[in-house]
Automatic annotation (TrEMBL):
One of the GO biological process terms: DNA integration
Residue ranges constituting the Integrase catalytic domain according to the UniProt record: 1-113
Family matches, as InterPro entries: Integrase_cat-core, Retrovirus_Pol_polyprotein, RNaseH-like_sf, RNaseH_sf, SH3_Tf2-1
Keyword field contains Coiled coil: yes
Parts forming coiled coils: 143-180
Organism superkingdom: Eukaryota
Entry's Gene Ontology molecular function annotations: nucleic acid binding
UniProt cross-references to Pfam families, sorted A to Z: SH3_Tf2-1
Protein name from the UniProt record: Integrase catalytic domain-containing protein
Keywords linked to the UniProt accession: Coiled coil
Organism: Graphocephala atropunctata
């Protein structure tokens, strides 16, 4: 439920890792209730909803693919206890070096690597004495080094995004819609043998629908002709509506 999700975000994410500037979610009802909106207002963060039927915009989907691959390696024949492997898989993901950032997620979040064994950390025994001037200077230098690492990671991520954007735009037609424009929406329908319905024979696009809000050049809020909200849609699933007899 929305209450459970909001409580988990606050207790297990915000209170441990800090409050993010925004939270990316899909359009599930558990993410769109008043508890989530109240949580966002309480901490001053934004909730960004993906376009419907467009999982490419959600980085969680890529991580889920990796988790699925790892689960198949762990579970093998016994598939009833797959959920018991998730903590170990999560640890492996958090301690693996990312190809783009060249650092592990754990290091970028905590400023240190996570140890898989208690005897790996040369400073496992806590030092409860007051730090010396030299130790304070070393810690200050480490914090400065971390800031430089964060800047470097940001540049690497922006460079990777630029490359991905370049290849994506090779296949993308440049078009934008303004509010109140009429558009056709891709028809997502599944075949149903009982109803003698074949998805291949259904129209590829349905509509027209009205652009009620232009969220961004890529995301549009749509309404049907009666004013009913039908959600946010990515521009790759939209086409300009051309009335019969109208010249292009």
């Amino acid at each position: 439920t929305s209450i459970t999700v909001a409580r988990h975000l606050e207790d297990d994410v915000f209170m441990i890792y800090g409050v993010p500037r925004f939270v990316i979610t899909d359009n599930g009802p558990e993410f769109d209730g008043s508890p989530m909106r109240n949580l966002a207002a309480k901490y001053g963060t934004k909730i960004l909803y993906n376009a419907r039927r467009h999982p490419q915009a959600n980085p969680t989907e890529r991580t889920n693919q990796t988790i699925g691959t790892m689960l198949r390696s762990y579970v093998k024949e016994n598939q009833r206890l797959w959920d018991q492997q998730l903590p170990q898989i999560g640890f492996a993901l958090r301690t693996s070096v990312n190809e783009t950032t060249r650092h592990s997620p754990a290091f970028l979040n905590f400023g240190r690597e996570l140890w898989a064994k208690g005897d790996e950390d040369p400073q496992a025994e806590p030092n409860l004495q007051t730090p010396s001037t030299e130790e304070v200077a070393q810690r200050a230098k480490k914090m400065q080094d971390l800031r430089e690492i964060f800047k470097e990671v940001k540049k690497k991520m922006e460079a990777a995004q630029k490359v991905n954007r370049k290849y994506y735009n090779l296949r993308r037609r440049h078009v934008e819609f303004e509010e109140e424009a009429l558009v056709m929406k891709r028809n997502f329908v599944q075949s149903d043998a009982q109803k003698f319905l074949s998805a291949k024979l259904c129209p590829r696009y349905v509509g027209p629908f009205v652009v009620s809000k232009k969220i961004s050049p890529l995301i549009y809020q749509l309404e049907d002709q009666s004013g009913r909200n039908i959600g946010r849609w990515h521009i790759s699933d939209l086409r300009q509506f051309i009335a019969r007899g109208e010249k292009i």
